[in-house]
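In this section we turn from sequence analysis to structure. A common task in structural bioinformatics is to predict how a protein folds when a small molecule is present, because the ligand can shape the pocket around it. The inputs are simple: the amino acid sequence and a SMILES string for the ligand, here manganese (II) ion. Study the lines below before reading on.
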Amino acid sequence: MPFGKGRCWRFRRTQAREALIKLLSRTKGHLSAEEIFWELKKVLPGVGLATVYRTLDLLTEIGLIKRYDFKDGKARYEFIHNDNAEHYHLICKNCGKIIDYEVTLEEDPLKDFKNSIQKKFNFKIESSDLQFYGLCENCQKLEK
Amino acid sequence: MPFGKGRCWRFRRTQAREALIKLLSRTKGHLSAEEIFWELKKVLPGVGLATVYRTLDLLTEIGLIKRYDFKDGKARYEFIHNDNAEHYHLICKNCGKIIDYEVTLEEDPLKDFKNSIQKKFNFKIESSDLQFYGLCENCQKLEK
DNA sequence: TTATTATTGATAATAATTCTCATTTTCATT
DNA sequence: AATGAAAATGAGAATTATTATCAATAATAA
Ligand SMILES: [Mn+2]
Ligand SMILES: [Mn+2]
Ligand SMILES: [Zn+2]
Ligand SMILES: [Zn+2]
């Protein structure tokens, strides 16, 4: 599924790349490079951390995955399952829980805002990055 | 202005803190910790980098300044001049130019979106973080 | 199969940030 | 103004995520 059969990429189809794509495409959640490294080792024991970083860069560049910064000091990665959607995050400052919120491009709540910006500043938006920080349902209760 | 006269803080009024607040409150732009360090040295030659980091953390916590991540590997800081506004950024991927876009809370384009999230996920938003990446006016021309 | 060359793993290097600790400042109290 | 307790500081070491280096290996086209 990730890359089918036969030649279809401008890059070599290596074990590390295939295993990493498979891993991330099946992962729910937002893993760091090192977490991915240890998971990958289970199926490809000889893999090196540098290769993980390199592959993550590559997959990010070609748009198969996305890199996020949730302000915990390390980058986190997520497979892009739906190319036609925007993907936002709610991050609980208390317990670290991350809630995904995905919407189709058509019903993107930021659509109008983005359009107005493109006009107002003559700025061509290529990607946007939105996180909400706060308290999840559970942690709100514990606050009392 | 930063802190008036007399006791008004739960922290000590030190030279470093006063100088750093003054510096940031007069700075247009988004300086990194090290840039702030060198600027600060001009007026307080003995200051240490660790103190700059510590003070930036403190001022961020108490809400006098805000820390941003523009994906260039270092945190950047900005004085909060208007407490009643949202402050967004457009970042040019080509030349690095950063455009500020500030709106009052009332006319915040994300207001409805935020409200819907608070309801839908029962998530209490404390802060939000939105950046747009793309091409500024100039760099769009150069692309051709 | 072979030649070419991209990719890899190990490890050293980098760089932003944090930590440690002895010394200095601040500030409430004399 | 002098004192003392605690907070804050500066210097530099330590930490940690990420990059760079380079000889060895694996993927591809011929
Ligand atoms: Mn997600
Ligand atoms: Mn700004
Ligand atoms: Zn929570
Ligand atoms: Zn530009």
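The beta strands of chain A are 31-32, 65-69, 75-79, 85-92, 98-104, 124-135. As an exercise, try to locate the residues that line the manganese (II) ion site and compare them with your own expectations.
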